[in-house]
Amino acid sequence: MTTLNEPLISQQYRFPWDRRRMRQNRNYDVSVMDIDVAGEIYDYLIIFNRPDETGVGGLASEANNESSEEKVIERVSWKEVSETWFQALCGDEDKKNKGVAAIRSEWLARFRTGNVSMDQGGDTVPRIAVECLVREHVVEYLGRRVGLNLKIVMSSAKDRIYCLVRAPTSLLEQKADLMDYKLRFRGEVDPGVYFWHRKEGHDNLKQPIYVEILEESNLYLKNEANEILEDLYAAHKISPNDAAIFEVDEPTKKHWSRRVHTLERIADRVPVTNRYPAYTDFSLKPHLRHLYEEYRSNRGPLLFLSKDRLYLTKSILEEHFDFGVLVEKELIIACFALHDASYGEDITRSWLLRHWVMPYFYSTGTQCGAPKISHPATESFESCPLIYRPWAQPLMEVRAYFGEKIAFYFAWVGFYGYSLVLPAIIAFICEIYLLVTYGSDESAKFHFDQLILAFFIVYWAARYKIAWDTEEKFCAIKWGTVDFEEQEVDRPQFFGDVDQPRRLSPITYENETFYPEEKRQVTRCFSFFLIILAVGVLLSVIILLFEIQYIVYDAGLRFIAELFPILQSILIQICSQAYTSVATYLNETENYRTETNYENNLIIKKFSFEIFNNYSALAITAYCKNIFFTCTFGSNNCLADTKYLLIAIVATRYAIALYAVMRHGIGTSVSRASNLNKKDDDVMIANPLTENVDLEDDPLETELNELSDAEANMTRQSRNTFAELAGFEAEIELEDYDGTFDDYAEIVLQMGLVCMFTLGWYLLPFFCMLETLLQIRTDAYKLCVQTRRPDPNLAESVDTWSALMGTMGLLACFSSAGIIVWTGRAFENEKLLSKILIFLILQHLMLAITAFIQMGMEGEEPTELKEIRKRQAYVIDRYKNSLMDIDNDGIDDSIDDDVFENDSNKKGHIDRDQLKTSGVKQVQLGEFEKAQIAYLRSRLHECKADKKIAQSEYKRASKAEIFNQQLGVAYSRRNPDLALGMVNLTILEAENIGSRRNPVSARQCRLVVHVRDSTPYNERKYEGMPGPPPTVSKPGKLPPKTVDISSDMLTVGTRIVWNQVFSIAPIKTNKAEIIIEIMDESSRAKLGTAIIVLSDLSSQLLRSLTIPISHTIPTGPTDAVAVMYVKAQFQYSKIIPIKHRIYGIVEEERRLTRDIQNIQLGFPPQHKWQFPEDIRGDENQQDKHDDDDGLPSPGF
Question: Which of 516, 648, 651 lies closest to 591 in space, CA to CA?
Answer without folding.
Answer: 516
